[in-house]
Amino acid sequence: MHSKTPRHFLHAIVFLASLLSIGAGFGSVSHADTLSTIKQRGELIAGVKAQYPPFGFVDSSGKNAGFDVDLSHELARGILGDPDKVKFITVTSGNRVPYLQSNKIDIIAATVTVTDERKKIVDFSDPYFNSGTLILVPKSSSIKGIEDLAGKKVAVIQGSIQVEDLGELAPKANLIKFGKTSEAVLAVKTGRADAYAHDDIAILDIAHGDPGLKVVGEDYRPRPFAMAVRKGDTEFLKVVNDRIREMKKDGTFDKLWNHWFGDYKKLVKPE
After folding, report:
1. Which of 31, 80, 124, 244 would give a disulfide with 226, using CB separation of 3.0 to 4.6 Å?
2. Does residue 132 contact residue 200 with C-beta atoms inside 8 Å?
3. Is the same domain home to 88 and 159?
């Protein structure tokens, strides 16, 4: 004799199946469809920084500007035939990967340092910048380099490569994590932090505009910056790389480089 399945159990199964069905389609963009989605949408959505000149910042007119912003405009030109068909979403070092993985953005153009660990969760474009780390301190500071950071309060940006690097290179430093560059700089200027460690170009740019601060030490652990797409997004990544290579070949990349980094002669362009 066969027992009957309780009606409430059948209802539960149907309800669960409907949830799974909704969840499978909610907010999802398959990797294979990223490029077609951009074309159908008629707009590239790029995650850029808003407080990180000269890579990404908001200019006096309220518009996104910077090297990463211009690269994104050029990607839109290559994909959609119009450099203005790009929407910018502000990201930070801490939220840029979650934004990418949750489909809030199509690509990260926000000074992402290429590391083996990050390669496990995103796919990187060809490198477009080489960057090490420098240290920013008050003009009167006796700190001369990374070797003097033991026991010091060092400002770093949450999610940045400096968090990991200083944990290895200056394990006795007291790291204070901030979400924004402006917060880290203010901490140094007000004495809440003894130093601020970040990407060389950011530190050079800040020191250039503030006579009360200085750069100390040598660039350490230089690594490339690259754009990041979702893991396995090979079709879209190929288009991104093709456009970067075209820019390097036709002179567009050199033009943008000289515009944004012309004052920093010691920086080395990636091939």
Report:
1. 124
2. yes
3. no
Do 125 and 231 share a domain, yes or no? yes
- 252-257 long-range Cβ contacts below 8 angstroms, 24+ apart: 252/74, 253/128, 256/67, 256/70, 256/71, 256/74, 257/67
More confident site: 130 or 24: 130
CATH number of the domain within which 246 lies = 3.40.190.10
Residue 123 lies in a domain: yes
Q: Tokens in use for 30?
A: 């398959």
d(CA 26, CA 33): 15
- Indicate if 107 and 150 belong to the same structural domain: no
pLDDT digits (tens, 9 = 90+) for 61-90: 999 999 999 999 999 999 999 999 999 999
Mean per-residue pLDDT, 245-253: 96
Contact call for residues 218 and 67 (beta carbons, < 8 A): no
DSSP for 56-71 reads: EEE-TTS-EESHHHHH
156-199 per-position pLDDT tens digit = 999 899 999 999 999 999 999 999 899 999 999 999 999 999 99
Question: What's the rounded mean pLDDT across residues 1-6?
Answer: 44
**Is 140 a member of any domain?**
yes
- Comparing CA positions, the residue from 103, 48, 95, 100 lying closest to residue 225 is 48
Please state, in angstroms and rounded to a whole number, the distance separating the CA atoms of residues 45 and 72: 9
Q: How many domains does the chain have?
A: 2
Cα separation, 39 vs 142, whole angstroms:
55
Q: Which domain holds residue 181?
A: 131-222
State whether 35 and 126 are in the same domain. yes
Confidence (pTM): 0.75
